[in-house]
Structures are given as structure tokens and as C-alpha cells.
Amino acid sequence: MTNHHSAKSPAIDVIHALIKTSHYIQREFDAQLTNHDMPFQLSGPRLRVLLAVSEEGEIRMSELASKLGVKARTVTDFVDALEKDQLLVRLPDPKDRRATLIQLTEMAQVQIQKVHCLQEEAAEALLTNLSEEQRNELIELLGNLANYQNVPCSFEE
Amino acid sequence: MTNHHSAKSPAIDVIHALIKTSHYIQREFDAQLTNHDMPFQLSGPRLRVLLAVSEEGEIRMSELASKLGVKARTVTDFVDALEKDQLLVRLPDPKDRRATLIQLTEMAQVQIQKVHCLQEEAAEALLTNLSEEQRNELIELLGNLANYQNVPCSFEE
DNA sequence: TATTGTTATACTCTATAACTATA
DNA sequence: TATAGTTATAGAGTATAACAATA
């Protein structure tokens, strides 16, 4: 590779570059979501909830909390709001009368699909400067960076 | 096709890897800052304010707002809180009696220095798996990516 | 007794709008 | 009239603590 950077690269600079880039990307994604003609304002965190439910098909609120890395109380609020917008529904868990199961509505699934398309477009636009090989390199480097397998994926700040 | 990454690397996967990694890092940094024996809870945003002031030495609130990318009202709150914690001071701008200049206190400078040390440690820990060369590669790739001037940001459908 | 989810409360970060003092 | 900052208000995202129903 060309080595005009190799003079010095303290860890802190690498991390700052990473954070800065990520902020930029998230701003772009956010603008994307809020400026398009979506029927609902699907903020990063709200979208994250929907995606987590989508992955499981049906999930308990307590499980959802730990999957998202937030507290149960926080999930209650998200579910309240998303239920009001008819993006998901609460169902009693037949196996445990204390528990509540969450499912997406049809509409939520359509919305998620739309968001996914927008994100693909945005992602392509952001990566025009990187070749296929460079993209793979980037993914590999990020994968090596640390053990963060347990960390939930998210799109917000 | 020889290695397991080169099969396919859709843009969206690269972006997700980036965001996920960045979240992980920020959580680590945050834990670092809140768990260490810092006299003040220097959250990410609060720290960002201090660093912005630090860079300029002395800065108007309005300038600070645009430097941070937030509204003037938001800066008022930050400055209120940080002034109460004696991390910065408001001074009248002699050149314009409407304006207010912000300066760091001695204590803030000490705190920033401490935070910087902690972050360097944390950054090193996060990057143990990457060689010097890989770090440079990573910075370079991120630099290409964030070269957003060239990206025609037309995300229309 | 322990767990699930909710009520009650609060904090941080951010915004818009209306106002004041100055320019 | 326009700009700098503040007061007033609001909303999203998150937390802890106390509690009810159930296990």
C-alpha cells in the first residue's frame, strides 16, 4: 500500500477517525430517513427496536431489553409509542402470564423494507470511493479491532 | 474468493460494521470515563464542548454552537452546567456587548488532560489486535470514505 | 422469594419560539 | 432590521426505584 500515512498512527487517532466517520454516516442515514416520505419518523432507536423484533419474529419484552442493551423500563416506552403508531402489537405469552410478547404488524414490515432500501442506496453513495477490495479490507480490520460480538447493532447516536 | 471475506461485501454491511464498531468503542470510552475516579461526570457531549473551547482558547457562544453543530439554545445549557461545575467561565466580549466569550478554567484543562490519558489507554486496549500497518490502513480507508465532498449526495428515489 | 412489566420520577441532549439588549 | 444570548417549553432516549401480578 501507499505509505504516506505510516509515519505515526497513535491508537487514539485511529479511534477518533473511526468515531468521526461513524458520526458522519449516521447523520447521513438520519437525514435519509427523516427527509424521505416515510409515514412515520423512524428514528435510529425506534428502528433498532423494530429490527430486533423482526429478527426474532416474536419476542418477550424482557428479552428485547437485553437484546437492545437497555432497561426494561425503556422498552415499555418504546413499545407504547410503536404500538400507538400501529407498528407492533402486544400479545399475552401463553406460557407465562406475567410476560408479554411483541410482534410486528404488516405495516412495520413494509416500513422496514423501505428503510432497508434507502439505507442500501445511502451506503452505496457513501462508499463510492472504495473498491470492492477496500471494502473487504475495511470489514476485516473492523472485525479484528476487538471482541464486540455481544454488542447489539444500532443506528443511532 | 480465497478468503472468507472476499465473496461479497455489500455497502450496507460495511456501514453496519462501522457503526457497530463505533458504538462499541463509545460505550468502552464512556465506561472508562464514568468508572474512573473523575471528579466530574464528563459525558461525551460535555467533553466535546470543553474540547471545542480548548481548541480555540476563547470562543463566542454563537461560534461554539456552529462549531459543535448544535443550536445556540443548546450551548446555553451546556455552558450553564459547565460553569456551575467551574469548568469554564463566561466573559463579556469587549468588542461586542451582546456577545459572551467562553474560556476554560485551570481545572477544566487538568480534567481534559486526564481524560486524554484515559482515552489513550482505552484506545490502545481496543487496538491490540492491529499492527501499526493495519492501523494506518484503517485510517486511510476511513479517510477515503469520509471524503464526502466528492460524494454526490442525491438520495432521491 | 424472584421475575415481568408498569407507574412514577428524573436526568441529559436536543429543538423551536418568543423575548432582551445591543448593533 | 438583524444578531447574541436567554427564558420558556417540549420531546426523545435513557435510568432507578417502588409496586402489582404471577411464577
TrEMBL record, chains A, B:
Presence of keyword Flavoprotein: no
**By its UniProt entry, which InterPro entries does this protein fall under?**
HTH_MarR-typ (IPR000835), MarR/SlyA-like (IPR039422), WH-like_DNA-bd_sf (IPR036388), WH_DNA-bd_sf (IPR036390)
Record's keyword terms, sorted: DNA-binding
- BP-aspect Gene Ontology terms: response to stress
The HTH marR-type domain, residue ranges: 11-147
Which Gene Ontology MF annotations are present? Answer: DNA binding; DNA-binding transcription factor activity
Pfam families documented for this protein: MarR
Quote the protein name from its UniProt record: Transcriptional regulator (MarR family)
- Give the organism, scientific name: Halalkalibacterium halodurans (strain ATCC BAA-125 / DSM 18197 / FERM 7344 / JCM 9153 / C-125) (Bacillus halodurans)
